[in-house]
Amino acid sequence: MDITIFLAQLWGPVISAVAIGVFVSRTYYIKIYRELEKDALAVLLFGMVGMVVGIAHVLAHNVWGTFPQILVTLLGWSLLIKGTLFVVAPGFVDRAGDKWVSLKLIPFAGGLMLLAGAYLSWVGYFA
């Protein structure tokens, strides 16, 4: 099985489920974020896990060919960058998250996630 298809099969349903959760339970997701920012150790662990998974993803799939390959590669790099920011600059991540909430960009992010998740699911299971 092609690694792009495999990763699309993993990422697609997860991203879709989180995106639907953002629309159905937006206050719950904001609450999760607010609780996470209160626990410094959880932020550090989240960042470390994000870095490890991001590095593994990029090492396994760093392909910039077709659109699905680019999207899957961008997910790996995004996870690596986000994890690194959580470890190196947690204050920046906290302020950026507050800005997204205050600007009411959560539905926009949820919409992008839903599109990406549905597309990856389609590529992974039906294309």
SSE run: HHHHHH
Helix percent reads over 70%
Shape: globular
Main β-sheet description: none
**What structural category arises from helix and sheet content?**
mainly alpha
Report the β-strand fraction as a percent range: under 5%
Could you name the ranges where pLDDT drops below 50 across 5 or more consecutive residues?
A: none
Task: Determine the N-to-C terminus distance.
Answer: 13 Å
Textual characterization of the structure:
This protein has helices at residues 3-24, 26-38, 40-60, 67-88, 90-102, 106-125. The protein has 127 residues and is an all-alpha fold. The chain has one domain. Helix 1 packs antiparallel against helix 6 (106-125). The protein is globular. The model has no long low-confidence stretch (mean pLDDT 94).
Please sum up the structure shown.
The chain has one domain (3-125). The chain is mainly α. It contains six helices and no strands.
Topology record:
Blueprint: H1 3-24, H2 26-38, H3 40-60, H4 67-88, H5 90-102, H6 106-125
Helix pairs in contact: 1-2, 1-6, 3-4, 4-5
Name the features:
127 residues, mainly alpha, 6 helices
